């Protein structure tokens, strides 16, 4: 079976959907996702989206991002991120996202390594609320077709030019021809035993890039979030206790109730301090304590975290929360320029699968959703301007079921193999296939 389109978008998280909404309405767009629309990291985001508060805050926002990233960031990309933050947050509001307000103004919260409060949020369900608002708009567009449970296994390409992708669902193998293809396939958390990510996110986009010799960058930069909920016999993804709890005043203490670190330092430093404390006290966790805050505030500000913990018999208004570092985010990815262009012609990468360089060695809290927005919009703009000059060549790429299954398996293994090669120190954190 063949599908012809102008643009193929692989992944329906915030990066994929925002790209689709920023493409011209007369383009024929196909979106595919390997699972359901809800099963992506975008739906899980809690804390919020960072933004320069105004023109004057841009320089400080840039400095905070660089400092958190150990100055390994791409400075040009960071400047773009900060400069275009305000307009993209406004665009989300125009698209129907209702961020929390205080006295009629946006209620900015704070997270680790931000010098000021500059994170917009929808309580602690920001990702779900933003995703739902975007999806509502996407569904209205007659020019966008969405296929769920459809997995990209390979690109259709020749001489380093991309002409679309090959995907499988349970019934068939589909060639989706496209003048431009966008990989927005998310992160790699599904490759780790303990991760906050959806288990389905196993770095497929990175695997395809590695196989096709498309440039990748900073694959050694993997972020561990300091405060995953510690559960003795947990299976599946780990529940995140958002950094915004610490932003609102929650304290980290060891099992003897003693504070040991400034909670608002960058994530990599706090994670390291927790692991050292766990070793010293011979414990698998430390505690995050928010019990000194008013109960009504906790329940209103963190409804998701309150109810998820309650369902596990933990009342966070009365009890300390056991937490430990878990894999959370991938700073590395497919190397792109400031317009999300990869090293393969007509192929773009947006969101967590890409590496714009904005995060350097360690992502500043809440910069991920912002990166997805800013650089997806830039990709869409470039495509809108250039697509009429592209001739689509339908290259025959017939493959059989057996080959498709082999490619699927290979895509799962290939990133694992690469990570073991470059990050031998985290080998025990990875799953076995
Ligand atoms: C628990 C949690 C909390 C977070 N909180 C925040 C926060 O407060 N602020 C912030 O900025 N960031 C946060 N993040 C990070 C942020 O949510 C993600 O980085 C961001 O949502 C990634 O968006 P994306 O569109 O790139 O990928 P995703 O939303 O993960 O979407 C990836 C898509 O690709 C699809 N896909 C993957 N492989 C294939 C394939 N082979 N074929 C077809 N489809 C495929 C998936 O099915 C999915 O639709 C959080 C992450 C987690 C896990």
From TrEMBL:
Gene Ontology MF term list: L-aspartate oxidase activity
Cofactor(s) this protein cannot do without: FAD
Pathway per the UniProt entry: Cofactor biosynthesis; NAD(+) biosynthesis; iminoaspartate from L-aspartate (oxidase route): step 1/1
Keywords: FAD, Flavoprotein, Oxidoreductase, Pyridine nucleotide biosynthesis
Gene3D superfamilies reported in the protein's UniProt record: FAD/NAD(P)-binding domain (3.50.50.60), Succinate dehydrogenase/fumarate reductase flavoprotein, catalytic domain (3.90.700.10)
The organism's place on the tree of life at top rank: Bacteria
Coiled-coil region(s): none
Catalytic EC class: oxidoreductase
The enzyme's E.C. designation: 1.4.3.16
Catalytic reaction equation(s): L-aspartate + O2 = iminosuccinate + H2O2
Domain FAD-dependent oxidoreductase 2 FAD-binding: 6-369
Family: Belongs to the FAD-dependent oxidoreductase 2 family. NadB subfamily.
Name of the protein in its database record: L-aspartate oxidase
Native species: Clostridium brassicae
């Amino acid at each position: 079976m063949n599908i012809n389109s102008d643009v193929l978008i692989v992944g329906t998280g915030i990066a994929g959907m925002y790209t689709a909404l920023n493409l011209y309405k007369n383009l024929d767009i196909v979106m595919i996702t390997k699972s359901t629309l809800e099963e992506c990291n975008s739906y899980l985001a809690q804390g919020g989206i960072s933004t320069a508060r105004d023109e004057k805050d841009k320089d400080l926002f840039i400095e905070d991002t660089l400092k958190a990233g150990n100055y390994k960031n791409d400075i040009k990309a960071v400047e773009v991120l900060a400069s275009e933050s305000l307009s993209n947050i406004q665009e989300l509001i125009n698209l129907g996202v209702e961020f929390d307000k205080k006295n009629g103004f946006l209620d900015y919260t704070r997270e680790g390594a931000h010098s000021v409060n500059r994170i917009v949020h929808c309580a602690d369900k920001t990702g779900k609320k933003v995703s739902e608002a975007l999806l509502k708009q996407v569904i209205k567009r007659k020019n966008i077709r969405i296929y769920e449970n459809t997995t990209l296994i390979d690109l259709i390409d020749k001489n380093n030019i991309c002409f679309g992708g090959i995907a499988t669902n349970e019934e068939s193998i589909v060639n989706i021809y496209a003048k431009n293809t966008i990989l927005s396939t998310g992160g790699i958390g599904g490759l780790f035993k303990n991760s906050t990510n959806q288990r389905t996110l196993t770095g497929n986009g990175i695997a395809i890039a590695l196989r096709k010799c498309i440039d990748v960058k900073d694959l050694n930069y993997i972020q561990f979030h300091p405060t995953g909920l510690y559960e003795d016999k947990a299976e599946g993804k780990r529940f995140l206790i958002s950094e915004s709890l610490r932003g609102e005043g929650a304290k980290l203490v060891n099992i003897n109730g003693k504070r040991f670190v400034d909670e608002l330092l960058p994530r990599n430093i706090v994670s390291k301090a927790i692991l050292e404390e766990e070793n010293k006290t011979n414990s698998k966790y430390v505690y995050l304590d928010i019990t000194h805050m008013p109960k009504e505030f906790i329940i209103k500000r963190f409804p998701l975290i309150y109810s998820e913990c309650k369902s596990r018999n933990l009342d966070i208004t009365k009890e300390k929360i056991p937490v430990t570092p878990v894999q959370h985010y991938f700073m590395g990815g497919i190397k792109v320029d400031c317009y999300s262009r990869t090293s393969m012609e007509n192929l773009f990468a947006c969101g967590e699968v890409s590496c714009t360089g904005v995060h350097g060695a360690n992502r500043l809290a809440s910069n991920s959703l912002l990166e997805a927005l800013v650089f997806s919009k830039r990709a869409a703009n470039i495509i809108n301007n250039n697509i009429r000059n592209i001739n689509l060549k339908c290259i025959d790429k017939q493959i059989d079921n057996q080959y498709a299954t082999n490619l699927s398996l290979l895509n799962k293994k290939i990133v694992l193999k690469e990570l073991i090669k470059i990050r031998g120190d985290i080998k025990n954190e990875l799953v076995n296939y």
